[in-house]
Design brief:
456 residues; Glycosyltransferase; 3-stranded antiparallel beta sheet; 46% helix; globular
Amino acid sequence: QGTPHRQEAVRDAFRHAWKGYKAFAWGHDELQPLSKSYSEWFGLGLTIIDALDTMWILELREEFEEARRWVATELSFNRNVDVNLFESTIRILGGLLSTYHLTGDPLFLSKAEDMGSRLMPAFNTPSKIPYSDVNIGRGTAHPPHWTSDSTVAEVTSIQLEFRELSRLTQQPQYQAAVAQVMERVHVLEGKLDGLVPMFINTNSGQFTHQGVYTLGARADSYYEYLLKQWIQGGRKEDQLLEDYLQAIEGVKKNLLQRSSPTGLTFVGELSHGQFSPKMDHLVCFLPGVLALGAHNGLPADHMDLAKELMKTCYQMYVQMETGLSPEIVHFNMYEGSSRDMDVKLADRHNLLRPETVESLFYLYRLTKDPVYQDWGFQILQNFNKYAKVPSGGYTSINNVRDPEFPSPRDKMESFFLGETLKYLYLLFSEDPNLISLDRYVFNTEAHPLPIWTSAE
């Protein structure tokens, strides 16, 4: 089971996914592999843009060229369509910027600049905290229909991309807009030991729904982007680093517990002072981020915690009958429980998410312990066993606890190609210079952006 063989298995998986996308969803956002159809989210060929740099890194040149042709001839952002600011920034803007850097092809930079300028109306709010949605054709923006709040993770996880767009275009407005958000959040009341609530109001610029603290959905990538902006900027912006270090201490103090019977370290949630042993699969980004911080000179105990949490995230796969993790697990903390984790019926789905293999990549790259590669290969094999659709593509499944009827959901998220398969390929690579962690920082959609050097 040498690593070239494993890398080839990832390329096979990508080709199989791409075959389904090409046959049934070409030019559309996402493949529905079972019904041999597609679904639209923004109507911008999301899967193609998200997968561009993956194809480049996997050296799938033929597939890359046909995707590039589509971008050159078909991709237009002059559309009367509402997009989510965060999702289109991390997937589309991030994907175009990283592909530009990897290829040097100016086509991708000009498309990135076009998209970036169309997203700017989102920042035109009373507080300068951006709206969640923007119409890229009309240049109008608005919050969701039910609230004037934005999600904290969303408004604080667009910075890497906009900062890089300013650097490349020499136009300061992109960086200025996202820096204002970070400065605002930095001084806000309502944090707990550096942990942030999940919502922020676009009118008042204040946190809302206070008292709930999680590292899962709606808050997760805030913490990731504190560290990564600091790394991107050449480790000069102390405010970002201070906020990150304080937050990690806040996690240790308020959210870290051990399960019973085997004592897995996990990250729970806090709701109005009550601890809940609930952990989203999304939280499995954290081992990788902690390891990356330690690699950049942060305390060594961050790496110890990274390894412990990595083990827990792997167990979220192993302890399921399909060997695939559910969306959410609840850990048992009382003495005498027979198993470490329970999964509620509504939480048993697997969306082909990347967070665990992402962290496996960081831990392998930074420790060289081959056990992380073995764990990742098991996960890939289980995707092949339970999520692969014969006619092409992979599908999310509804029930990771039932290997007989995992109950496919008929959707291949763009991040399966953009992130999950990319991180698996990088995990199986023995070349530390293939997207070196000293030269690139990955955005939260696995699109590598350059670390700024002082020469620039």
